[in-house]
Write a structure and sequence with these properties.
alpha+beta, 4-stranded mixed beta sheet, 4 strands, about 20% strand, disordered N terminus
Length: about 100
């Protein structure tokens, strides 16, 4: 179990839902998802449910706090050997799926 998984299971005050706003994706993110036969909805559902993926425990806590305080949130998920980021803006107006190198 990774450190973030351990933290998620221990935390009793985790937020339960994140508003996404307008959802957009880069070409690179869509290509990686399509090549893997994956749906963006799967990862958007995880992100909106406050499952931050493969971030470390410190970033996991920072995301939980960001949901409560209205700051930017970043999740990371592995799609095969590629990492997919999902970023929701602080004002919750937009969520972007992208690859780290597209940031």
């Amino acid at each position: 179990m990774c450190e973030a998984d351990h933290y998620m299971k221990r935390s009793k005050s985790r937020p339960t839902q994140l508003r996404l706003g307008r959802v957009v994706a880069t070409g690179g993110a869509l290509e990686v998802l399509m090549d893997a036969g994956e749906s963006p909805a799967k990862y958007l559902d995880r992100h909106s449910a406050c499952d931050w993926g493969v971030v470390d425990a410190e970033d996991w806590r920072a995301n939980d706090n960001a949901v409560a305080m209205g700051s930017r949130v970043l999740s990371a998920y592995m799609i095969g050997s590629r990492k997919l980021w999902i970023i929701t803006e602080a004002d919750r107006s937009a969520t972007t799926l992208l690859l780290p190198e597209e940031y």
